[in-house]
Amino acid sequence: KEAKLWGGRFEESVTDAVERFTESISFDKALYKHDIMGSKAHASMLAKQGLITVNDRDSIHEGLSEIERRIESGEFEWRTDREDVHMNIEAALTDLIGEPAKKLHTARSRNDQVLTDFRLWIRDAIDAIGVKIKYLQVSLVKLAMKNEGVIVPGYTHLQRAQPVLLQHLLLAFVEQLERDAGRLLDCRVRLNFCPLGACALAGTGLPIDRFMTSDALEFTAPMRNSIDAVSDRDFVMEFLSANAITSIHLSRLGEEWVLWASEEFGFITPSDKVSTGSSIMPQKKNPDPMELVRGKSARVVGDLVTLLTLCKGLPLAYNRDLQEDKEPVFDSVKTILGMLEVSAEFAQNITFNRERIQKSLPAGHLDATTLADYLGIPFRTSHDIVGRAVAVCVSKGCELQALSVDELKSIDPVFEKDVYEFLGVENAVKKFSSYGSTGSACVASQLDHWVTKLEIN
Ligand code: ARG
């Protein structure tokens, strides 16, 4: 058996079970690129500070580049007995270039190293998720553009409430996604500080330059407190929270579309490209992708809960428990990227059944609130009067606009002939004019905003 990098004080080797239980190479090899990037910056800094020679630095750089090449071509052998990504790369570097590699870990611990890698990795993940969020926003805006003027029932309590423009509704999701992207960017700003040089927890007496490595890795600045640097995972929790919130937005979008695709609603028809069938019922065509978007939000929320639970009660500073912070992050990122991509493809592959929607609009007295707004008497009173008119409709099984002026007047003399200008969903929708409302001018300006902001066309 090869001696451990940390083996000096040990007389016996760990059992196979302990080795298997404590390894992280099976998952943290995903950090290799950022680990190599961090090591190169560290070696450059050590050389500049005179802690290693320029020749050492150059052979470390060349060796690390060769290792990166081998990893990417699949030639690199990841070894469980070398525990994690940091020691796999360092040991392989020693195999490759010998003595100079043994100087690389000067003024560095795996505790600050792993956090440097992880912050860099999450920074890239944030950028990748941002791209996918925008892709979904663009898909939703384009879907809205294809459906100008379509009125749909708006719901509260899943009961028909007021008529809204379909564009207005689709743009609501675009707004939510914009805040999701914003939360990730906020998180990126806060996480972008460099832990490298915090070493195990106390820093070092060697004359390192933490500002140099921080700059080289495009961090804003080195972290001020070495104990904080190696102990906290708030940036991970914040990132996973942002993903969890995004996943809940996507889950609600999924639920909306699953509902709309049902026979009962029949508002949308997803194309075959985004539907799957049943192994027993030959007629079935199911909106599985959006059901799974809804379902997979559970994992993303679970990943956050894992991190919160992991960190609760840990004493300062580094604890090995913290190795468990990686897999939830990898899972969260993989899942959220898939959810965003599939939601965008779904948006690109649905058609709204305008006739069916149109036919359903008279149901549910969607125009009642507009009518109440227009009676020109105290709102509480008009609410009551329109409520009584609705009750008459319910007993007769008709819509408000089917009541005659005489019938309306017998409910209350306030009704005049002009009442019909406010009745019917088309009339009702036209009356909206407040900022952010479903009025067509307001929705058109929302749409303009997004077309410009998202650089569509
Ligand atoms: N694989 C470890 C982790 O992910 C790296 C840090 C290990 N540090 C230590 N002192 N054992 O947390």
TrEMBL record:
Argininosuccinate lyase C-terminal domain mapped to chain residues: 366-430
Stored Gene3D superfamilies: Fumarase/aspartase (C-terminal domain), Fumarase/aspartase (Central domain), Fumarase/aspartase (N-terminal domain)
EC number assigned by the record: 4.3.2.1
Enzyme category, top tier: lyase
Swiss-Prot/TrEMBL keywords: Amino-acid biosynthesis, Arginine biosynthesis, Lyase
GO terms, molecular function: argininosuccinate lyase activity
GO cellular component, one term: cytosol
UniProt xrefs under InterPro entries: Arg_succ_lyase_C, Argininosuccinate_lyase, Fumarase/histidase_N, Fumarate_lyase_CS, Fumarate_lyase_fam, Fumarate_lyase_N, L-Aspartase-like
Pathway: Amino-acid biosynthesis; L-arginine biosynthesis; L-arginine from L-ornithine and carbamoyl phosphate: step 3/3
UniProt family annotation: Belongs to the lyase 1 family. Argininosuccinate lyase subfamily.
Protein name: argininosuccinate lyase
